Structures are given as structure tokens and as C-alpha cells.
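## tool: complex_structure
## caller: assistant
## args:
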Amino acid sequence: MICYNARVILRAWIFAACLLAPSLAFAQATMSTTSSAAAVASTSSGAAVARVDGAMKPGVPAAPVSKHPYFFAAYGAVWLGLFAYVLWLATRLRSLDRPR
Amino acid sequence: MPKSSTLAVWMLPTATLAMVVAVYAAFVAPIDTGEGVVQKILYVHVPVIWTAYLAFFVGLVASIGFLKNRKRSWDRVAACSTEVGVVFCTLILVTGPIWAKPIWNTWWQWDARLSATLVLWFMYVGYLAVRVLAEDRAQAARWSAVVSIVAFLDVPIVHKSVEWWHTLHPKPKALSPDGLNSGLDEGMGTALWLGVLAFTLLYLTLFFLRLTVERLSDERDEKRVAA
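## result:
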């Protein structure tokens, strides 16, 4: 029973991670804006100005730029770390399941 | 009492739902006027360190319980909770530099808060090493319980370091001496506390899952001894 439940939870975890990743990407895409607006709204650093200049070049369409790149990076790092840990747990579980 | 695996099965959908809500709240939270969008890392970084504190605290209580009662169940709880805590502590050291680079223009500073957190991580990695290197399970449980108690002394030092010393690290805003959420807007406070709730549920899921693996390991060892 324990083994069965643990297997269920591991599969559910992988499912949850797979579900959450695209929803995050979707949220990221829908909440993004054009490069010039994002640069003006977020910061006045040199990099941001360069992006505005790039978007203003004739014939170059304004590319969507994320409004929350740092949050996304931090959140992604956390999910990757936890996912690696769960995979390690799954490996241990499999080795315990194997009859000796 | 329900088994740890059953608890984990029930905890996972709750944690996932809470995480989706927390992520949404973080996305829609107002943008900080000083730090801009970089400040959004707060909604991940702070809940992660809170979870690590919680995991280490559970490990401390279980270690004291083990030294008092010498029961395997206490040691099992201490080992599982501390291991999950180490994972979260590692993630603190990953998410922190992602914030530090755009704000401080460097990934790392030998600042009191950062150094104390690194020391905390090393001590708890030492805890895991002690468990692996001990000659038998009883010795591992005894030694690691002592290490857990000593290592936990660093947790209040980490938390108070920004008040005790002049540091670059920002002072606590959600739980500051000036009051709850004193340094945050309403939307920011809500997003932060939703994150804390979501990561606490995530910790419980991982903890019960890890406990399941440990119990299976114990059962197999018992069968091996009996055979």
C-alpha cells in the first residue's frame, strides 16, 4: 500500500510539474508586453535603453519582453531543484521496490 | 493515524493549487518603485527560506525527542525533515544571487546574512554527511541529533544578522519590528503570505513523501534481518 501510494504521488508530482510549467509559460506570455513599453516601465538602465533602440529600428517588429524575468528565473530554479529532488526520491523508491 | 504516504497523496493537490494561486498573486502584485520587477523574487525567496527554517525547526524538535526517548520514529522525522530543509536551503542560495546580480551588480557578497546562510547550509550538509558516515544506524541517529541541535543555533543568527550587523541585505519587511507587512503594500503582503502558505504545503508534501521512502527502507532492513 505504501509503495502504491508513493508511486501515485510521484506520478502526480510529475503531472503537476508538467501542468505548472506550461501555465507559467502561458502567464508569462499573456502578461508580457512590447520591448519599448517594458523597458520604459521597468528600468532606465543601459540594457533597457538598448532594447528600446533595437525595437525602434525600422522594419524590426517590437519583440515581446517578459515583465517578470527575475521572478520567472527564480521560480524556475526552485522548480528544477525540487523536481530533481523528487526524481532522486523516485529512484530510491524504485531501488527499494526491487526484490533482492 | 494516517500513513505518511496517504498524507502526501492528499497534500500534493492542495500544495499545487496553493502554488498556482501564489504564482498568480505574485504576477499581479504591484511593481516596487525602488527595485522594479526584480523585487518579485521576494515572493519565491522569502517563502523558501521560511520553509527551510520550518524544516530545520521540525528537525530540531525531533532530534531533541530522539535524544530523550531513543525511538527510531523521532530520528526518522528528524532525518527526513532536515534533508528537505537542506534542499530548500540550497534553493535560497540559488534564488538570492538571481536577485543580487541586478541589484548589487554582483552574484555574491561576503555580507553577514549571506555568510551566515552559507554556514547554515554547510552545517546541515554536515548533518547529512554524519548520517552517511556513521558506522551504524544508532550512532548515526545520536551524532546527527547533536549536529542538528548545534546547527539550529545558526538559524536565529541568520535571521537577526541584518539587525545585528550593518549588511547589504534588505531588512525584513513582512515580519519586521515595526509590525506585520509594515514595509509592503497590501497586494505585496498578500502575494508574500500566499507564497509562504504554498511553500509550507509543498514542504509537508515532500516531507511525507520522504518519510514514506524512509519507512520502506526500514521495512526492507527489518525483513533482511529477519531472513
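## assistant note: Chain B has a mean pLDDT of 88. Chain B touches chain A through 46 residues (CB under 8 Å). Handing back to user.
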